[in-house]
Design a protein that fits this description.
The structure is a single chain. By secondary structure, this protein is α+β, with helices and mostly antiparallel strands. The chain is built from 18 helices and 17 strands. Strands 2-1-5-4-3 form a five-stranded antiparallel beta sheet. It has a five-stranded antiparallel beta sheet with strand order 7-6-10-9-8. A five-stranded mixed beta sheet has the order 12-14-15-17-16. Strand 1 and strand 2 form a beta hairpin. Helix 9 runs antiparallel to helix 10.
């Protein structure tokens, strides 16, 4: 106490500054930097784990699509003939290979643009395709005994000359003995895998790699590493299905996050430099220690710098969360596509062909006829909805639809009065008339508990347009609703349609047909409700002639 009394005011202020400001500031600054660094590392590792998991889910979805789209191929008659043939029978082997090339390969290529080619081996020794070019051998058959669908990994080839490919294999079972009889190897483009792996990770030097079940790189930012096997040191650290660890290198510490897919057996690895992840926090800690030992002004400046750094780090975490959310949305889209593709048109066509064959064998002409018409309806529906077609195509589609309904409603009468020469002169879009006919069944008959008794289509040529009248004998709409429809058909402008400003009706079928015609061909084309009462409904469709449609 006596020493304190002998100190000058300046010395006391200096001592107070050091004891009550510099020391706490130094201590708080050190703790703040340490905790901030640790928190940011943990947050980045967490979001990086989420990113790797979502990328692996996207790979699962992609290869599940491949598996679904190729599941019927091993049972194809041509492939079953191939695996049963003796390879020494050169002539028959040549004939079946030619048929596979001419008939089967175009269908596979149409279904999956990412399938470059495919190759087959039979247990009897038969080989289809130039397997030597891609270093494929028959040992793949052994690896498929436990799993009928296997991802083989990247093809060994010269990336600088020939593009890289990934191969997947399917086991072929003999449809008589049900024993493994061969294998199909599909060669896939790398583009889907590259698009999945081409994501921005955390840190300037972060990147994603993909490793196959044999611990070889399928994807690496350095193409020279494609096909290389992971080092023993790295493999020892990938001992569990998922995890993360820190690895030391000449460039500093790196955080490694990995995830192994149970379905594909592929491993996605994310590597992020902790130095770039943390940014300038290490340098800032050193500056804080120096500033705490100097003067108040420099300490104040450093304090401001800390606030700016906090703002930057908050933005880093915010951006990281946005990236994680974006990746989650992409994964949901991929999942939806995978679910939608599980039942595709080709599967339905094949199924309907089987039903038709069974009906023909059973001599049931009614079922066979309905099956063929239903297949035609499906093929027509999957066509380009924006393509301008002739009236003949749409009328054929409506006739198929109505004949199927006639099997359901025995007393249904279908009348079609259109000049033959007009069928190839009038233009329209796919599914222009059929929705209106379907509307008659639903709203004219079924919703009122009435039997479907008649659909009548009449055409009449005018100088500037062609008029089609679709009529039924069901119960029509109220005069108020009919007036509301006709007012909208007449008064709503094309710009309002484009701006989606019109939301007038709970049932938008008629409005959709009208807006498509009006937006594509202009006035006066579109719909008009001519009559709708207790005796039925008549709807007029004004369509352009084909030469007029081409000028739009």
């Amino acid at each position: 106490m006596r020493g304190m009394k002998q100190m000058s005011v300046k010395q006391k202020l200096t001592l107070y500054f050091i004891v009550f400001f510099c020391v706490p500031f130094l201590l708080i600054g050190f703790i703040w930097n340490f905790e901030s660094t640790r928190t940011i590392e943990q947050s980045a590792i967490y979001f990086n784990e989420q990113l790797v998991q979502r990328l692996n889910n996207q790979l699962d979805d992609y290869f599940r699509e491949i598996k679904v789209d190729t599941q019927n191929l091993p049972g194809h008659p041509l492939i079953q003939q191939f695996i049963k043939l003796d390879p020494n029978n050169s002539y028959e082997m040549y004939q079946i290979k030619k048929r596979i090339s001419d008939e089967l390969y175009p269908d596979i290529n149409y279904k999956r643009k990412d399938i470059v080619s495919f190759y087959m081996y039979s247990v009897k020794g038969g080989v289809f395709g130039d397997s030597a070019r891609y270093n494929l051998d028959q040992k793949i058959l052994d690896s498929l005994q436990e799993n009928s669908f296997t991802i083989n990994g990247i093809v060994s080839t010269n990336w600088s000359v020939v593009p890289a490919f990934v191969t997947v294999s399917r086991l072929i079972y003999d449809n008589v003995t049900f024993q493994p009889a061969g294998v199909i190897v599909f060669v896939l483009k790398m583009d889907p895998l590259l698009s999945i792996a081409d994501v921005e990770t955390f840190g300037k030097e972060g990147y994603i790699t993909i490793v196959d079940a044999e611990n070889r790189y399928i994807y690496h930012p350095d193409k020279a590493k494609w096909g290389e096997t992971l080092s023993e040191e790295r493999l020892a650290k990938l001992s569990s299905p998922r995890g993360q660890f820190v690895e030391h290198s000449i460039n500093g510490k790196k955080n490694i996050v990995y995830n192994v897919s149970h379905f594909t057996k592929l491993t996605i690895i994310s590597e992020v430099s902790l130095k770039h992840l943390i940014g300038n926090l290490a340098d800032l800690r050193t500056i804080t220690l120096l500033i705490a030992a100097i003067i108040l002004v420099l300490a104040f400046i450093n304090f401001n710098k800390m606030l700016l750094e906090v703002k930057r780090l908050v933005e880093v975490i915010h951006i990281s969360r946005l990236k994680a959310k974006e990746s989650e949305l992409k994964h949901r889209d991929a999942t939806l596509q995978a679910l939608q593709s599980q039942i595709n048109p080709h599967f339905l066509y094949n199924t309907l062909e089987v039903i038709n064959s069974l009906a023909v064998i059973s001599k049931n002409r009614s079922i066979s006829s309905m099956t063929v018409r239903l297949a035609n309806l499906l093929r027509y529906r999957v066509g380009n909805p924006q393509q301008i077609i002739h009236l003949r195509e749409e009328i054929d589609h409506v006739s198929n639809y109505t004949k199927i309904q006639q099997e359901r409603y025995e007393k249904l009468e279908f009348s079609l009065e259109i000049e033959e020469e007009m069928l190839d002169r009038v233009a329209l879009f796919r599914l222009t008339i059929q929705p209106i006919v379907e509307n008659s069944f639903l709203h004219g008959y079924e919703n009122h508990g009435l039997p479907s008794t008649g659909i009548y289509i009449t055409g009449k040529a005018h100088q500037s347009y062609y008029s089609l009248i679709v009529a039924d004998r069901g119960r029509g709409m109220s005069p108020e609703l009919m007036a509301k429809y006709n007012e909208a058909f007449e008064s709503v402008s094309e710009q309002q349609m484009l701006d989606s400003q019109v939301k007038l009706f709970s049932n938008i079928g008629l409005w959709n047909v009208h807006s498509r015609l009006r937006l594509s061909f202009g006035a006066p084309f579109g719909l008009t409700i001519v009559r709708s009462n207790e005796k039925g409904t008549e709807i007029e469709i004004k369509l352009p002639y084909y030469s007029h449609a081409n000028l739009q």
